[in-house]
Amino acid sequence: MVVAIRLFNSHFCVYTVYFILQKTFLAFLFILVTCVTISDAFCLFEPLTAGKPGCIDSKGTLHQFGSHWRAENCLDCSCGKDGTSCCSSYATPVDFDEEKCESIFDKQTCSYKVVEKADHKKECPVFTWVG
To answer: Which domains does the chain have, with CATH numbers?
Structure first.
């Protein structure tokens, strides 16, 4: 009887450890997939031009070290001692009814609006944004 109890306990422990490892792996996988999906934004880096007192943007404008600005292509930029860093400033709609709706990018506000194809005054629900 003592042997039977020990055998039952050892099998119970093996199944418990297996169950915990399985759930931990699934949680890790879920977090990884979520992070990859959410981190769809992009950034660019332009090294500093030697001998310049700041950073020069695509239009040729000089920006002082430590300054921040929004570029014409809706990138948020900053000037550091190493160069210019620019990252996308907008989220992109990816989960909406594409048969009934369309996304329209507004360069003035640097944002997307999702509206019905037949009537642009009616907005559509968006379930997922990335960026």
So the answer is: 43-88 (2.10.70.10), 92-130 (2.20.25.590)
